[in-house]
Design brief:
It is built from 5 helices and 9 strands, in the order E-H-E-E-E-E-H-E-E-E-E-H-H-H. The chain is an alpha+beta fold. Strands 1, 2, 3, 4, 5, 6, 7, 8 and 9 form a 9-stranded antiparallel sheet that branches. It starts with a strand and ends in an 11-residue tail after the last helix.
Length: about 210
């Protein structure tokens, strides 16, 4: 594991998500990227039942860490546990209930490009396509500040000036030792943005299902 940066890539008007993903994949392959299987990141949201105002617990999984799950609260507090935590949530249904239609996932191809791993994911919310996320990981380093310039150079060659600066959740952790929960926090930021965008486009009666 190294340092990862995750960015949302816009889908231009008049083009489908599948077309844009195909273009991005060909760019990676042109640079010398070799497909090394698939990846999958998902997130379910649980709402507290007894607290007022209610709190949200986000439960995330990443195929890079198949033995772990990541529980992140609204406050940003994070618990990394083994997959038995999934069963615990079902036993806590009197305290936290899963939000209907709020499951988000990003999945796609995984590429090895020299010291980098590139992942191009199609994002779906409740089974409907919502956007594209690009994750680039620099494997030899575990400190963001030491490898940001190399990450930035590759990212900009793939997705342009979208990657002008580190992801917001990484800016305050540039000199910390990178851990997998930093990656999951980035995905959660994007997933919440997709949920909010979906809620904005829904009739008022359906908005709360996404927020």
């Amino acid at each position: 594991m190294g340092v990862s940066c995750v960015y949302s890539y816009p889908v231009p008007e008049g083009r489908s998500g599948a077309q844009v993903v195909d273009v991005l994949q060909k760019q990676v392959e042109t640079l010398g990227g070799i497909k090394m299987g698939n990846f999958h990141v998902d997130c379910e949201a649980y709402q507290s039942v007894m607290l007022n105002p209610p709190k949200t617990l986000h439960l995330l999984h990443n195929s890079e860490y198949p033995a772990s799950c990541f529980a992140i609260l609204d406050s940003g507090a994070t618990l990394v546990a083994d997959t038995l935590f999934n069963g615990l949530m079902s036993n806590l249904k009197n305290y936290y209930q899963a939000r209907k239609g709020a499951k988000v996932e990003s999945k796609g191809n995984r590429y090895q490009l020299a010291d980098f791993v590139v992942k191009i994911g199609s994002v779906s919310l409740a089974g409907s396509f919502k956007g594209i996320l690009v994750e680039v990981e620099y494997c030899p380093s575990v400190v963001t500040s030491e490898c940001w310039n190399m990450l930035k150079e590759l990212l900009q060659s793939l997705i342009g000036n979208i990657a002008d600066s580190p992801p917001q959740s990484l800016k305050v952790k540039m000199d910390e030792t990178y851990v997998p929960s930093f990656t999951m926090a980035q995905y959660l930021d994007h997933f919440n943005n997709f949920r909010k965008a979906a809620a904005m486009s829904q009739p008022p009666s359906n908005v709360l299902a996404y927020l």
